[in-house]
Amino acid sequence: MDPKLMFSSPNISSFSTPLPFFISNQLPFLPKPTLSSKPHSSLSTASLRKSQFLGTTLVLSQWGNSNVDCNRNAPFGPIRSAVKRRKELPFDNVIQKDKKLKFVLKVRKILVSHPDRVMSLRGLGKFRKELGLDKKRRMIALLKRFPAVFEIMEEGVFSLKFKMTPEAESLYFQELKIRTEMEDLVVTKLRKLLMMSVEKRILLGKIAHLMTDFGLPQDFRDTICHRYPQFFKVVATERGPALELTHWDPELAVSAAELAAEENRIREVEEQNLIIDRVPKFNRVKLPKGLHLSKGEMRKIMQFRDIPYISPYSDFSALRSGTREKEKHACGVVHEILSLTLEKRMLIDHFTHFREEFRFSQQIRGMFIRHPDMFYVSLKGERDSVFLREAYRDSQLIDKDRLLLIKEKLRVLNLQKFAKMLNFANAA
Asked: What is the b/e burial string over 150-186, where b = at least 16 CB atoms within 10 angstroms of the residue's CB?
């Protein structure tokens, strides 16, 4: 399957809202033209204008992006939070469920780097800091908490080693196979990430923060980054090696929010053709389940929603910091990055690493809280996370990646601890 087609918008019919909240439903849509696949130097403005919700004042730059006209009557200065953060258990439960699994994945990552995936407990003790453990915790006691995942072997009186159980090792090999099959998809994610950045270049050290979220292989610096010179290349900078875009693809410069809006428009047109004398729709917002806002907060959200949508792939270098247009663009970038992640959530700290590349505000956490219709900030876990709200129903991700299905099976193995302990007690 073409990796471009795998970035289609999530199943809108299963969302609690049919249209991304930061796209106004008051804006008319223009017919979507066929995008040219020729190099960016030969593109014209007319060939890339997709629909009017991008704004009517967009002009293409040298990269084929849109140059946003920011000379609107917008307030200048810091945008302050007008919405109070509310705790929502369904999202917090997602973080809670991952706590024990996160430890297992850290141990497995260390284990698979050793020959034959066998390691001594003494050797594992050297990674206490990486595992977040203090000196008082005994490694053998920790591993015995996961008997369905790790198997302890005795080699002599004072030599204890461990490895994965056959079931856990089988899941590991399945994961490796899926990662190999999904390389084209991962490459597309990197291309889209570079296309959204202001300089079309990002340090490899920063991309490494997205390794788990994007499903990148451990050795992506030495493999993927050098296999596709037609898309990007590694360049030396004063701050270290960076990945730089070598080809702008207009067909990739379409966000998940745009796709969702277009699908919504098509569905509404089809409904209008089937229903005669239909009562016209009003500009109302149906809040996601579990989100309760005051009238004042709702009014702020509606005002922000009616600002013309700015594509995350547009040229935002002229947008002034602190303006509503800049925040509109930043929300679009965050929405798109979260859409590219496996679990549609990320650590907030990871976004702060990209302030320079995407011109994020210093108060990016406040921006997430200001837009609870799009994002949810969870304070659970060692570090705070931000969720793409529309991608979840209660505590369940609506569309699960194949790698996530493997992760779910590994979580089931973790839960088999008590069953194995019970069987051992009965046998004794």
From this structure: bbeeeeeeeebbbbbbeebbebbeebeeebeebbebb
